[in-house]
C-alpha cells in the first residue's frame, strides 16, 4: 500500500552540530510503500549523523531551500533490473560557485524502478542501496570532477585527491601518509569515476557494488564529504578496514561488476548550477524563434534546441580525455533524438531536450573515441524514458 505525498526531515544530532544544523528533507512523490519510505528516512538520518554544519539557503525556482531537499519516488521503468535500468539518482540543483557552499547540492532526485525496490527489499539490500544512492545526491562521485578532485581520468588508475580522504586512506594503509584514493575506472553508465574502486575497498558503502546488507560508511568517505565543502564529524563513521585481497580472491569476489548495486544501471543526473547565466547557442538550422531571458522560445513543436547540449557533452568528454568533435557526434545525436520523437511522440520543454542532447553526446562520443559499435537507439530510449519520468514528475507533481 502506498501513502500520500509527504516530507520527512532528518536533522543532524551530532555532538559537533551547532544551531542551525544540517538537515535532509525527503519528499515522497509516490510509488513507495511505507517500509520503503522508512528506508529513505533511515538513510537520511545516517547521513545527517556525519554531516553537521548547515548550508546557506538557496533559491530554486522561487522556493527557498535550507540545506537539501530530495524528491523520492518509485515508478514502473524496466521491471526487475539486472540488464535494465534501475532508476536515476543525483543532485539536480547546485549552489552558485560564488556561494560559501559552492556547488553543494540544494535539491536532488532519487527515482527507482518499483519492481527493483521490491526485489532489493526482499534481498535485504534496500537500506544500503538507498543510503549509497543518497550519497551520490549529496555529491559523492557526482561532484568530484566539478570540484577538481579527480586525477588521471581516462586511465586505468584514476584517483581522488581530496586532502581529508587521502589522509584517512593513508591511515587505512597503515602508512599514515596522505595517499591518492583509488577510484573505479570500469563499469557501465554512472559507475566509472563515481565510486571507490571495488577491488580495493570491496564492501565499503560507496564502492561500486552492493551485493548484500551491512556496508560500512568509512571515515574516508566522511572525509571526502569534507573535501567537497561539508562540515563533518569523522567520529560518526562506521568501523572499517581494508579487506585482504587474498581472502577476497579465494572467495571468488574479485570479479568485474557493471552496475553500482548489481541490479541494473542507475542513470546519472546533470545538475543545474543556480544563479548562473545560461549560455544560449546559435539556433539550430530550421528553428525559428527568439531568445528571451536566456532561453529559446519556439512557436509550436520544432526539432529540439540541442546545440548547447552537444557542446557541453563534448566538453565533458574532453575533461575525461576522450576527444571527439562537435561535427563528428552531432549527426548521430540528431538522428537518435529524432527517432525517439517519431517513435515515442513525446513533447517536453526545450531544456529537457538540451539536457538529453548532452547525455546522448557523452554516450555517442565515448563509443566513437573508444572505436566501439554505434550506440543502439533502444539504449538511448532507455535514457530518455527514465529522464522523462523524472522530468514530468518534477514539472507536474501529483
For this structure, the CATH topology of the largest domain is Leishmanolysin, domain 2
Helical content stands at 25-40%
Question: What integer value in Å does the Rg equal?
Answer: 21 Å
Q: What is the second-level CATH architecture of the largest domain?
A: Alpha-Beta Complex
**Biggest pleated-sheet summary:** 7 strands, mixed
CATH superfamily (homologous) name of the largest domain: Leishmanolysin , domain 2
β-strand number? 14
Number of domains: 2
Number of helices: 11
State the name of the first-level CATH class of the largest domain. Answer: Alpha Beta
Salient structural properties:
398 residues, alpha/beta, Leishmanolysin, domain 2, 7-stranded mixed beta sheet, globular, disordered C terminus
Task: Describe this protein's structure.
The chain has 398 residues and is an alpha/beta fold. It folds into two domains: 6-267, Leishmanolysin , domain 2 (Leishmanolysin, domain 2, Alpha-Beta Complex), CATH 3.90.132.10; 278-395, no CATH class. The protein is built from eleven helices and 14 strands. The strands form four sheets. Strands 1, 2, 5, 6, 7, 11 and 12 form a seven-stranded mixed beta sheet that branches. Strands 8-9-10 form a three-stranded antiparallel beta sheet. Helix 4 packs antiparallel against helix 6 and helix 10 (350-369) packs antiparallel against helix 11. 44% of the residues are buried. Mean pLDDT is 79; it is low at 256-260, 276-304 and 394-398.
